[in-house]
Design goal:
Layout: H1 6-15, E1 21-25, H2 32-43, E2 46-51, H3 52-57, H4 68-79, E3 89-94, H5 100-112, E4 116-121, H6 124-130, E5 139-143, H7 149-155, H8 160-171, H9 178-194, H10 198-207, H11 210-226, H12 236-251, H13 259-262, H14 275-283, E6 287-293, E7 304-313, H15 316-324, H16 329-332, H17 341-354, E8 360-364, E9 368-376, E10 381-387, H18 397-404, E11 413-417, E12 423-425, E13 428-432
Length: 449
């Protein structure tokens, strides 16, 4: 079984005896169903799983359920022999987005208190936007992502002691031993190829069969692109087009969404014309948003520019499949003619959102761009991050200008690169790219500068 950090979150929630219902959100294929089964089966004698997508296709027991009593009747038709009490029975409502009315019913199931409940869904961000009566106070929604790099390391046999030592080195601004650095970088590049979708990681760990991994990536990418029809048939083609254009946007110098490129037939195409499509891609979890900031102040949300947006694919393995397919040497061998900048930015975005960060970037017409800005809660300031894939990682004029602006009150900026170098140069800290896995939004994980 693959180690997933979210398992502890689920277990702690269920142990807390709170009656708030946990709702696991996330893109398809990230492992939501598996991890809920694993945790819930270990904790409860009676595990009842209702796949509402299957119910919609077959029996339709829950299609018109609006009352608690009707819910229990439908539940008994599926699992009457497992219906114990709240302490020994958990009901797992999978793919709950198929029946949005059940999201509203969760409030009343919670109040009735007959069983313990947990739910998951793949388009919950989209569905909740369309649900007229969201049961606020009755649900706790958390988002699940593909495996982050630390989980990938664990899947490949890197143990707790090694990870603890690496974390200590990060905190104390120390580099790893050169041989260990080379080993971790090798795994990092393999992560760029494999990505963090559980099925792909399992294929990598079990067989190292790149052909099968790439077939899985291609199928998943097509599945994500086509899944929009379940949301809105009228917008399906535009959603699919924008999603399929993300890699080409990332290859541009600015990397941000260019509205006029989405539909060249419209002379005055504007960002505002596609806000619903962007919302779908972001709320469904298949794209990661990075919002523009022109004048950073803490917290960053209050300074964002609404009509400038970058989108990244939610899994770096999908992106490297699009760019390089079976030509994995483009990633593994540092081919000079291959620019991996957008790939490194994608994996950085994937890491940061998995660790709880809301993503922003600095956009200034005169001073250039900084790849990522995150809130530095400890210093009530902004922490700028620059992601470098080449050997010129010490060249970053926009970052230099950003950190030297006294009105921004920036304490430090970090440059992540392939180099094993760890050092402080003025306000710039240089770190290897894999140290990004130790940045955590909910706790202070910044080194002692």
């Amino acid at each position: 079984m693959l180690f997933r950090k979210i398992a502890a979150t689920i277990e702690n929630h269920l142990k807390s005896k709170t009656d708030i219902i946990l709702l696991i959100d996330g893109a398809r294929q990230v492992g939501k169903t598996y991890i809920v089964r694993y945790v819930a089966k270990a904790m409860f004698r009676n595990f009842i799983e209702i796949n509402l997508a299957e119910d919609r296709e077959k029996n339709k027991y829950f299609e018109n359920v609006r009352l608690v009593d009707d819910f229990y009747i439908a539940l008994s038709l599926s699992a009457g022999n497992k219906m114990g009490n709240k302490e020994d029975t958990i009901v797992f409502l999978d793919e709950i987005q198929e029946y949005p009315h059940l999201l509203t019913l969760l409030k009343f199931l919670r109040e009735d208190g007959r069983f313990t409940y947990i739910a998951s869904g793949s388009l919950l961000g989209v569905t909740l936007l369309q649900t007229p009566s969201i049961p606020m106070g009755s649900i706790l929604k958390i988002r699940m992502y593909p495996l982050d790099f630390e989980e990938f390391l664990i899947a490949n046999g890197v143990g707790d002691l090694a990870l603890s030592s690496m974390r200590d080195s990060y905190r104390n601004l120390r580099p790893l031993d050169p041989n260990i650095h080379a080993y971790i970088m090798d795994l990092f590049k393999k992560y760029l190829i494999c990505g963090g979708l559980p099925a792909a990681v399992n294929l990598f760990v079990e067989s190292k069969n790149i052909s099968n991994i790439r077939k899985y990536h291609s199928n998943t990418y097509e599945y994500y692109s086509g899944d929009a029809s379940k949301y809105d048939m009228k917008r399906k083609l535009k959603i699919s087009r924008i999603y399929e254009m993300i890699p080409s946007f990332l290859e541009n110098k600015k990397k941000r969404i260019v509205a006029k490129d989405i539909n060249p037939h419209i002379k005055e195409s504007r960002y505002s014309m596609y806000t619903d499509e962007f919302d779908y891609l972001i709320n469904s979890g298949i794209a990661l948003e990075v919002k523009a900031i022109t004048n950073p102040s803490y917290p960053l949300t209050q300074s964002m520019t609404k009509n400038l947006l970058k989108l990244y694919i939610n899994d770096v393995g999908l992106l490297t499949n699009i760019f390089y397919g079976m030509q994995i040497n483009a990633v593994m061998s540092d081919v000079r003619s291959v620019n991996l900048g957008s790939v490194y930015e994608c994996v950085a975005a994937q890491e940061l959102v998995a660790h709880g960060f809301e993503l922003f970037y600095y956009d200034n017409r005169d001073k250039g761009e900084v790849d990522f800005l995150i809130n530095d809660h400890e210093n009530l300031s902004t922490l700028p991050l620059e992601i470098k894939s080449g050997k010129d990682y010490t060249i970053h004029s926009a970052l230099n200008s950003f950190v030297s602006n006294t009105s921004y009150n920036i304490k430090r900026g970090i440059v992540f690169s392939n180099s094993g170098d760890v050092r402080v140069d003025g306000k710039i800290v240089y770190m290897p790219i894999y140290y990004i896995m130790f940045l955590q939004s909910e706790i202070s994980e910044l080194p002692e500068w």
